[in-house]
Amino acid sequence: MTAPQSIMTLDAARTIIAAARRAGREHDLNPLSVVVLDAGGHVTAFERESGSANMRFQIAFGKAHGALALRVGSRALTARAEQQPYFIAAATSAIGGALVPVPGGSSSSTTDIRSVPSGLPVTAPTTTS
Hints:
Elements lengths: L9 H17 L6 E5 L5 E6 L7 H15 L3 H10 L1 H10 L21 H4 L2 E2 L6
Antiparallel strand pairs: 1-2, 1-3
Helix pairs in contact: 3-4
């Protein structure tokens, strides 16, 4: 038996995005793109800060969708990609290419934001300008 999934509301998604953007500013990150998915992998909300690269939606979505699809955080997904690259390649193909196995996404079902950059599907360059 699986635990019941909480519903991702638009208000909760906006709270997550605001917290991610705030953390990005606090950590002096380059402009962020933040996507929040519901339990079914559908986009609930997305924001792209001015200056964020043009393909950041696809990257953020792939990080979040991959973490959600495999029910692991993106750091665990990265480790699995390093240990089992054929599995990750097959999983990526099976879910239509929407899997980016690098840190930045999470399969968290809570809307209580406590550690934003590593706990949310946020994508940004790792260096600041």
